[in-house]
Design goal:
The protein has 434 residues and is of the alpha+beta class. It has 15 helices and 10 strands. It binds 2-acetamido-2-deoxy-beta-D-glucopyranose (6 copies).
Length: 434
């Protein structure tokens, strides 16, 4: 699997490609695997052993055949849904595996486009806005630049040949890895154009290991557009497979005013017209911004090493989040905001699931990685989901308290990410035992 495709040369150049941090971590310390080796027989191991035994005997033809299949032969759904009130032009870039039959298309409000990808697919999905193609499907007249869309444009082609132009909110996927896991994230590293949510279609796999993974842990949402923001206090988002019993942990401090103005003024793609004599009052708090207000990341706008984490700044220790990244993280805590916060924004589940990417979900941004940190730690320590965890996951009071207290003491997110990694390794290998 090529980890570094030549994406940097055109557009979307601000982030590293794969959560390499996580892959390196796996190769380097892999502490769980070591401790497993020294364990005595536990219930999960026994169940796994029996499962393998049965599979080997060919009792589950389906099970054994899909265990033997290369991920390239597996077909996974990749649905793209438009909840926006305007037409959008989703674009799909394939970096590994077999991509969908089209790499760009128009999608009317309320429509879903059911594409499929191979089980080893790696790529990204974003939405182009305000497009007007020269001739349907055609690119620019020879030698001319330009853009057919206000955001996300890829060389004026309806079908994208490569990456698009910043800013665009991205949904990124690595469907399979050598650890049999799927990595995915919402990325604002190259900027933000529209709200995005990702739904892991775990139930559609028909694989009970995956179907047991709760929607409140797998479905991140990022809403940085105030008109689509639900009021503070809302605790579940039905569009994302959760309900009052199993609420999705949501970010609970961003007000509509904050979400309207989160983008640092100079990073707005099209700042509002200067009032009167052309002199801004500074700060610019009183100038009304448009509802659709695409925001470039500091890297996309200025292309400086310190913002793009390149050159002398190419390590987590030497690349700090910019104002853009900290603002983005406040609006979308589960999203990736600069090249080195993949540890606080990468979701990892056992491989085999397809996904739905929803543009313009309404509700509030999710805050999954911060809220369930303690439960994930407990999961990692005990090796199974306890009744206490299930109780807490259903405790709306607890989830509200934790979601509201974002600036209180939080577990180290680097640490939480390591735990998430371990937990999914565990779930992937032993099955969920309730
Ligand atoms: C179900 O998913 C798990 C996790 O990815 C995988 O290990 C297992 O092989 C899958 N089972 C079947 C029957 O495909
Ligand atoms: C551009 O697209 C966005 C998102 O679909 C929409 O909200 C906005 O009204 C469009 N702007 C124009 C000028 O058409
Ligand atoms: C809430 O969601 C869970 C998990 O998806 C489901 O089992 C349960 O039936 C739902 N409850 C209601 C009241 O819809
Ligand atoms: C999330 O919801 C599921 C049911 O869909 C539940 O079993 C689970 O315990 C909940 N939360 C966590 C942290 O697992
Ligand atoms: C729910 O959580 C709150 C706050 O953490 C706690 O006080 C309460 O006892 C919990 N309720 C249940 C039923 O566990
Ligand atoms: C969080 O920040 C808000 C405003 O910035 C402040 O009023 C509140 O007390 C803080 N909460 C905690 C738990 O620090």
């Amino acid at each position: 699997m090529s980890r570094r495709p030549s994406r940097r040369k055109a557009g979307f150049g601000c982030q590293r490609d794969t959560p390499e941090y996580l892959q390196l971590e796996h190769h380097h310390h892999d502490p769980y695997r070591v401790s497993r080796a020294s364990q005595t027989v536990t219930l999960p191991r026994l169940i796994w052993f029996l499962f393998v035994l049965v599979a080997l005997q060919g009792r589950f033809a389906l099970a054994s055949s899909s265990l033997n299949h290369h991920p390239r032969d597996v077909v996974l759904p990749l649905r793209v849904t438009n909840n926006c009130k305007d037409t959008i032009w989703p674009a799909i870039l394939t970096q590994n595996g077999i991509g969908p039959s089209v790499s760009g298309f128009a999608l009317a409000p309320g429509d879903s486009n059911p594409q499929t990808v191979s089980g080893d697919w790696r790529g990204r999905v974003w939405a182009r806005t305000n497009c007007s193609f020269p001739v349907s499907g055609a690119g620019p007249a020879s030698g001319q630049g330009g853009a057919a869309c206000t955001t996300g444009d890829c060389g004026m082609f309806m079908e994208c040949q490569g990456a698009g132009q910043a800013p665009a909110t991205l949904a990124e996927f690595t469907m399979s890895s050598d650890t049999y896991q799927t990595f995915y994230d919402i990325s604002l590293v190259d900027g933000y154009n529209l709200p995005v949510g990702i739904i892991a279609l775990v139930e559609e796999t028909g694989n009970s290991t995956l179907a047991d993974i709760p929607p409140n842990l797998t479905n991140p949402v990022c809403i940085g557009t105030s008109s689509l923001l639900a009021s503070i206090g809302r605790s579940s988002d039905v569009d994302f497979g959760t309900n009052a019993t199993f609420p999705l942990p949501l970010e609970q401090s961003a007000t509509p005013a904050f979400v309207q103005d989160w983008c640092p003024w100079p990073l707005q793609l099209a700042p509002p017209q200067k009032p009167g004599d052309g002199v801004y009052p500074y700060p610019d708090d009183n100038i009304q911004r448009p509802i659709f207000n695409p925001c470039l990341s500091a890297c996309a706008k200025w292309n400086k090493a310190k913002y793009c984490c390149t050159g002398n700044h190419n390590t987590p220790a030497t690349c700090s989040p910019s104002l853009y990244s900290t603002q983005a993280k406040k609006v979308c805590p589960d999203a990736y905001s600069y090249a080195y916060d993949d540890q606080t924004s990468t979701f990892i589940i056992p491989q085999g699931s397809g996904f739905e990417v929803v543009f313009c979900p309404t509700g509030r941004s999710s805050n999954i990685l911060a809220v369930f940190g303690d439960q994930l730690r407990q999961l990692a320590q005990t090796g199974h989901v306890t009744r206490d965890i299930v109780g807490l996951a259903q405790n709306v009071t607890y989830i509200r308290e934790k979601s509201g207290a974002r600036n209180g003491s939080r577990p180290s997110l680097v640490w939480v990410a390591s735990v998430v990694f371990l937990v999914w390794t565990l779930l992937g290998q032993s099955g969920v035992v309730l």
